[in-house]
Each structure stands twice: as C-alpha cells, then as structure tokens.
Amino acid sequence: AMEGDGGTAAAWMATHRGMYERATRHPFTVSIRDGSVDLAAFKRWLGQDYMFVREFVAFLASVLLKCCKQSDSSDMETILGGLASLSDELSWFKKEAAKWSVDLAGISPLSSNMEYCRFLQSFDDPEISYTVAITTFWIIEKPCTRIVLLPA
C-alpha cells in the first residue's frame, strides 16, 4: 500500500537508486542548479518541457475524469491541486520564454518528447483504470518533488 510512511517509495528507491541518481544528478540538472547551464541547451529544454507540461495537463485531466467515474476517494482535491500547480508552471514557462526569446509556438517536439507525450495520451483509453492512472501520476511526480531537495 502507498501509505504515508514512505515504505513503497523507499523500497522503489532502494531497488532503482542508480537509475534515480542518473536522472536527478544528470549533468544538465546539475548545471542548472549551479548556474553553469549552456544557454542553447536551456532554451531547448524550456521549449520541450513546456510542450510536455501542456500534454501533462491533458493527462491529469483524464486522471481527474477517471477519478470522478471510478473512485469515491478524496483524491479529487489532490488532482485539482496538481492542475492548479500546472497552471502556475505554464505561466512560468511563458514568462521565461519571453525573457529568453524562446518562441514556444514554433517549437518542434524531439522524438523522445513525442514518445513520452504519446505515452501520456494513451491514458485516455477507457480500458485503463483509475488505479493505474493515479499510480502513473504518482510515479511521474514523485521524483520531481525530490530533485530540488538533493544536495549539490
């Protein structure tokens, strides 16, 4: 069970620590944290991540619909909070894009981004249960809450 004690997350972290550290300590992530990021790489990331977040909004909306139809839990408030956070994130992307002269409308998705977005779109399938969808949401978001907490 996914309880507040962190048992499941701790077990997954222990099992997949190497993969987690490669993702969260990637040179690009570290360069952002220490201020040495290459501007062209940052602009490319900004555009690609903006596209991903827009698709993630649609994914989370599909999770919300499944929640309404398949669950009587209090998850709805959590999902709505996630959508509100994504609204703030999209505003941040637009502000940063204007600051760094990145034309968000002119961005073409890289193949890895397209594949990830297609993966998210697959959750529109009514055959995918709410349990699978909300677990996927948790798996995607869990590392994001930890990246900013990692020591240099």
UniProtKB/TrEMBL annotation:
<dbReference type="GO" id="GO:0005829">
    <property type="term" value="C:cytosol"/>
</dbReference>
<feature type="domain" description="Thiaminase-2/PQQC">
    <location>
        <begin position="15"/>
        <end position="136"/>
    </location>
</feature>
<dbReference type="Pfam" id="PF03070">
    <property type="entry name" value="TENA_THI-4"/>
</dbReference>
<protein>
    <recommendedName>
        <fullName>Thiaminase-2/PQQC domain-containing protein</fullName>
    </recommendedName>
</protein>
<dbReference type="InterPro" id="IPR050967">
    <property type="entry name" value="Thiamine_Salvage_TenA"/>
</dbReference>
<dbReference type="InterPro" id="IPR016084">
    <property type="entry name" value="Haem_Oase-like_multi-hlx"/>
</dbReference>
<dbReference type="GO" id="GO:0006772">
    <property type="term" value="P:thiamine metabolic process"/>
</dbReference>
<dbReference type="InterPro" id="IPR004305">
    <property type="entry name" value="Thiaminase-2/PQQC"/>
</dbReference>
